[in-house]
TrEMBL record:
Ranges of residues in domain Band: 39-198
Organism (species): Tegillarca granosa (Malaysian cockle)
One Pfam family named in its UniProt record: Band_7
Xref: PANTHER family: AT06885P-RELATED, BAND 7 PROTEIN-RELATED
Keywords: Membrane, Transmembrane, Transmembrane helix
Organism lineage string: Eukaryota, Metazoa, Spiralia, Lophotrochozoa, Mollusca
InterPro entries tied to this protein: Band-7_stomatin-like, Band_7, Band_7/SPFH_dom_sf, Stomatin_HflK_fam
Keyword Transcription tagged: no
Family to which this protein belongs: Belongs to the band 7/mec-2 family.
Transmembrane stretches, start-end: 20-44
Name this protein carries in UniProt: Band 7 domain-containing protein
Length: 269
């Protein structure tokens, strides 16, 4: 499309009136020289391009710049286009997801102009049109997703939005470089329900862990009991160890230990 309008501009002449006006403009520049240089020489920065219209037609060769360029008074008009990457926030959009949940989502879009001439003649206001299209695309894309996907699959959703926006703004000379979802705000009731569900899940996992710990402790006690039954000396050592730990607590309880042999005789009777 860009080559089409350039060829059309170069092939179509100015016409008789156009050449007359062009000649008068040159005469004015010569008469008021060198003061006319202040009105005929323009400068664009490294990050800018100038789209020049001569009697309503785009000059062949595309946008001018960076640097100096020359225009003729009365017949030339120009418009500067910023070629740098621009970022803007998409206002929070109330969106009804596929599973009938109302959420508020906002995003940020990064874009730049890659065709200065197309961004001027193909759309009235390329920047405003891109903003409106981004808000519409955000609603359309998220309306096909369920709530869980909005929370866990943001990267793929952002890539899908970036692809749709870039394809739509290509005729306008706009390149959408990146789209990022900033925040997903859920209703208060849904937040409470999700918090209660998460709390119940954590309690369930804690109970499972505690039960597994008790099971392992019971097995260890059973193995210790089997060892003590097989070795009576181990029982006596455990008895003496228990007495030592009790005496270290410095309490007022007096313990009279009984011989282990006497306890075994009582247990046999």
């Amino acid at each position: 499309m860009g080559d089409g309008y350039r060829n059309e501009a170069s092939d179509s002449g100015l016409g008789c009136c156009g050449y007359v006006l062009w000649g008068l403009s040159i005469v004015m520049v010569i008469i008021f020289f060198p003061f006319s240089l202040c009105f005929t020489i323009k400068v664009v920065q490294e990050y800018e391009r100038a789209v020049i219209f001569r009697l309503g037609r785009v000059l062949p060769g595309g946008a001018k710049g960076p640097g100096l360029f020359f225009i003729f008074p009365c017949i030339d008009e120009f418009k500067k286009i910023d070629m740098r990457t621009v970022a803007f926030d998409v206002p929070p959009q109330e969106i009804l997801t596929k599973d009938s949940v109302t959420v508020a989502v906002d995003a940020v879009v990064y874009y730049k102009v890659f065709d200065a001439t197309g961004s001027v003649i193909n759309v009235e206001n390329a920047f405003q049109s891109t903003r409106l299209l981004a808000a519409t695309t955000l609603r359309n894309v998220l309306g096909t997703k369920i709530m869980t996907e909005l929370l866990t699959d943001r990267d793929s959703i952002s890539s899908q939005m970036q692809h749709i926006l870039d394809e739509s703004t290509d005729p306008w000379g706009i390149k959408v470089e990146r789209v990022e979802m900033k925040d997903v705000r859920l209703p208060v009731q849904l937040q409470r329900a999700m918090a209660a569900e998460a709390e119940a899940s954590r309690e369930a996992r804690a109970k499972v862990v505690a039960a597994e710990g008790e099971q392992k402790a019971a097995r260890a006690l059973k193995e210790a009991a089997d060892v003590i039954v097989e070795s009576p000396a181990a029982l006596q050592l455990r008895y003496l160890q228990t007495l030592q730990s009790i005496s270290a607590e410095k309490n007022s309880t007096i313990i009279f230990p009984l011989p282990v042999d006497l306890l075994q005789g009582m247990m046999r009777k």
